[in-house]
Amino acid sequence: MSFEPKIIGFACNWCTYAGADLAGTSRLKYPPNIRLIRVMCTGRIDPEFILAAFARGADGVFIGGCHPGDCHYMAGNYKAKRRVELLKRLLAQLGISPERLRMEFISAAEGAKFAEVITEFTEKLKELGPSPLKAEGGKE
Amino acid sequence: MAGEKKVKLAFYWAATCGGCDVATLDIEERILDVAAIADIVFWPVAMDFKYEDVEKLEDGSVDVCIFNGAVRLSEHEEVAKLLRRKSKVMVAFGSCACFGGIPGLANVADKEQIFNIAYKETVSTENPEGVTPQTESEVDGKKLTLPAFFDEVFPLDRVVDVDYYVPGCPPAVERINDLVGIVAKYAETGELPPKGTVIASEKTLCDECPRKREEKRIKEIRRPQDFMPDLETCLLEQGLICLGPATRGGCGARCIKANMPCRGCYGPTAAVRDHGASALSAIASVLGLDEEAEMTEEQLTALIDQIKDPLGTFYRFTLPSALINKVVRKKEVE
Question: Which residue, of B139, B164, B189, is where some domain finishes?
């Protein structure tokens, strides 16, 4: 059986979630590997959420937020971006490929970009294989 | 009732530096109060008891066990379970028992890697036969045993049920006095605080920090050896990585008053599961807030690269109790 990665996605209410909606209403195809969680802003995504997703067996975590300058709450997307960058370094120190964490700016008009990014990310994770945390049984 | 029926106390040290036992004596003359209300039945650092003395005690006959140190060896786990069985109340004392502490940073490697470095690879080691500690070995026809070295370090509550936590590296004298107060009240009335209570503040260190704060934003991370921080202003605003915003207070801001940033020994507040994630979040959000809309990927990378060792910085005391509590054994990246 081929490996189907599990992706946890966090999408901001104002841009990426609407973008994902547009991908749906436009009948664009993308792999069903992502489980999308709507948050009001990417700034709300505590790094703990991301680590918890990995600890519980996610193969990848996707963060989708507004383009620079477009955040509904001024600066949530910048904060998220910095947290993600720092988290990638932490993941690498933990021996987990930082490529398993991906953040993209996707606006409400970019349904096609959403479908494209998720397709690409799913392919990348298939290449990487199952999360090394899964092999070790994870916890919680 | 004090004096009539004394409280029975046990102390133990597992993977620890011994500083917690020293801190216990820092309460100075109040140690006499302890002696007045309590009989000490076990205290390896100070008194000559053996494990078999503890084994002989009746189950549940020790009132309070104050356990410091993380669980690194099978011996620590064994004694933790023994003391849990003998004690009514188990207190995780100090950051190592509460979260894994500094010894917990060893979770960046497994047993094999640690043994290779400690017994084979260091320049000063001469070990041509590559001997490493074995749990059993034979010398002159006699079998010798040693405790097993675990693959990872655990906080105390991963091996036994813990009733109270006293964080700190070491716990502040005021908080040890609080613990003495709790034991004294227990001796007198039999009353105890709710299970799981952390004997420290419910707020973060920033709440008790005496320094002036304006708006926290930093463009450049600086390190304590690079400059002399001024004594009045928030250390984070001066560019030092201070974990105060993410760390439980109760220490009395000891390090801050000595002009050193908080390193996080009190662990997370009750609202937070993963201390390192919380600290990482706090620091990342105050980094380089000006002109961020125009910031390029390269600038962002340069900004973040200033934090040299995120794991060691944000999980200095809490790696074994983190959501991802050790480095994966089959690393995808080096």
Answer: B189
Please tell me whether the interface predicted TM-score (ipTM) of this complex is above 0.90: yes
DSSP B39-96: EEEE-TTTS---HHHHHHSPTT-EEEEEEESBEEEHHHHHHHHHHHHHEEEEEEESHH
B196 inside domain: no
| Domain boundaries, given as residue ranges, for chain A | 7-12+28-133
Neighbours of B239 (CB within 10 A): 18
Q: Taking the model in full, what pTM does it have?
A: 0.93
Q: What is the pLDDT of residue A137?
A: 58
Tell me which residues of chain A have a C-beta less than 8 Å from any C-beta of chain B.
46-48, 50-52, 54-55, 68-69, 75, 78-79, 81-83, 85-87, 89-90, 92-98, 128, 132-133, 135-136, 139-140
pLDDT tens by residue, B119-142? 999 999 999 999 999 999 999 999
Q: Which of B28-32, B36-40, B249-253 has the highest mean pLDDT?
A: B249-253
